[in-house]
Amino acid sequence: MINPVLNTDSYKTSHFLQYPPETQRVFAYAESRGGAYERTLFFGLQAILKREFAHPVTRRDVDEAHDVLREHGVPFNRHGWDMLLRRHEGRLPIEIRAVPEGSVVPTHQALMTVVNTDPDFAWLPSYVETALLRIWYPVTVATISWHVRQRIRAALEATADDPAAELPFKLHDFGARGVSSEASAALGGMAHLVSFKGTDTLSAIMAARRLYNEPMAGFSIPAAEHSTITAWGRDGEEAAYANMIARFGVPGATFAVVSDSYDLYHAVDDLWGRHLRQQVIDSGATLVVRPDSGDPVTVVAKTMALLAGRFGTDLNGKGYRVLRNVRVIQGDGVNPQSIGAIFDRIVADGFSASNIAFGMGGALLQRLDRDTLGFAYKASAIEIAGAWRDIFKDPATDSAKRSKRGLLGLVGEGARWETVPVDGARFEPLDGRRNALRPVWRDGRLLVDESLTQIRRRAAGFEAAA
């Protein structure tokens, strides 16, 4: 377990010596300053609070930090941390407010605020920035996933008979092996599960159970990989596929088979389409063919056409072709742009979006950073000798890094949100409206503990404004 005293940047350990005399409170906020998307889906704070803030600081933590930082060459606020142990039993005297998780909020708005509740700990709101600003990661993953969901939803609504039933399983998380740690897989994988229910990231399933009160957040199916197919040898490719039918082909089941180990089009047209066709049909299961190489748009289109020729199609209520007995999943080269291009092609060819699902790995959980949505955490107000005053930065060399000033709250709903001034007592808007940034943490205690089901429901409510 991480030492909470050391869960910060080295330079922040000297900040307790840098504030003006008689500083009593510091007020900070976090926002997305814009980037790849104009709206963000807020998610992940509850997980960060439970994993990194829930355990009180101990005497052992303070002693270890004292020794480490002395050798490291930076100051250590031994008096402050000892006072925290005595006065607050190791619990951080701060209040964190945040927009409800699952909310979809335009960029450039305050998503979270932090203020100390004990005037002797004005240095804490800045000290905890390092841990709290890691919110950028689950928010960015959740935002990417939510925007992909809107693209898939549009394709399904235009070409499928039952879009609502199909949508949750159209984007599958393949990203566990492509991230830097198990913790990233868990946090990013949960962020994806706000919008979808398909995942192969078991770390996310377990984290959702422990951190978001969700007994089973996502689902998967039996699926082959190249090692299990090529283990049969090139001459045994057909036998490998037949084994998949024998093992998993039961009525109503779904199973996926990677089919490009040697020659994808031969596998689709001859092995699946002729030699094993009747076995697939007789099994009563749905075979999902997975291409895994080549240009995604071209490969998906040709695979779908070959499957249609061998297994046949039915016209749905919207006049689009739906494959019989088989589907396609594309997991190679998948990103928001290629998903759109694939839909454009197959719909132009007369196929329903029902025929395909997608697996996203690195582009979902790893091909992003704090600048993807321009996340920042800044102090915006300071209380000195009982009086609040604004603080801000306004660099002449980069106006995009101009920070907000004053005590801040958030009001609005749907697609309309606005960051507004609040008072210094209750932190409610000066104009009488309600602050959408609700208290979620105060003095070491979690105030809001929601399930993933609640958060999914809230996120779904924003789709009308998408």
Count of alpha/pi helices: 17
* Lateral arrangement of strands in the main beta sheet: 15-14-1-5-3-18-19
Largest sheet, described in full?
A: 7 strands, antiparallel
**Overall 3D form:** elongated
Which percent range fits the helix content?
A: 25-40%
* Number of strand segments: 19
N- and C-termini, Cα separation:
40 Å
* Mean pLDDT across every amino acid position: 97
Structural class assignment: alpha/beta
Strand content: 15-25%
Indicate the CATH topology of the largest domain: nicotinate phosphoribosyltransferase
Q: In the residues, how many domains can be counted?
A: 2
In CATH, the architecture of the largest domain is Alpha-Beta Barrel
Any low-confidence stretches, pLDDT <50, length ≥5? none
Q: Look at the structure and give the CATH class of the largest domain.
A: Alpha Beta
Give the radius of gyration. 26 Å
Q: What's the name of the CATH homologous superfamily of the largest domain? A: nicotinate phosphoribosyltransferase
GO molecular function: glycosyltransferase activity; nicotinate phosphoribosyltransferase activity
Family: Belongs to the NAPRTase family.
Enzyme class: transferase
Protein name: Nicotinamide phosphoribosyltransferase
What report would you give on this structure?
This protein has 466 residues and is an alpha/beta fold. It has 2 domains: 4-139 and 367-465, nicotinate phosphoribosyltransferase; 160-365, Alpha-Beta Barrel (TIM Barrel). 36% of the residues lie in helices and 20% in strands. It is built from 17 helices and 19 strands. It has helices spanning 45-53, 59-72, 78-88, 124-127, 129-132, 136-159, 163-166, 182-192, 202-211, 226-230, 237-248, 264-275, 277-283, 296-311, 336-348, 362-365, 452-460; strands spanning 23-32, 39-41, 94-98, 104-106, 110-116, 171-173, 198-199, 254-258, 286-290, 313-315, 321-323, 326-330, 356-360, 375-384, 387-390, 408-413, 416-421, 438-442, 445-446. Strands 15-14-1-5-3-18-19 form a 7-stranded antiparallel sheet. The protein has a 6-stranded parallel sheet with strand order 7-6-13-12-9-8. A two-stranded antiparallel ribbon has the order 2-4. Helix 8 links the parallel strand 6 and strand 7. The longest helix has 24 residues, at 136-159. The two termini are 40 Å apart.
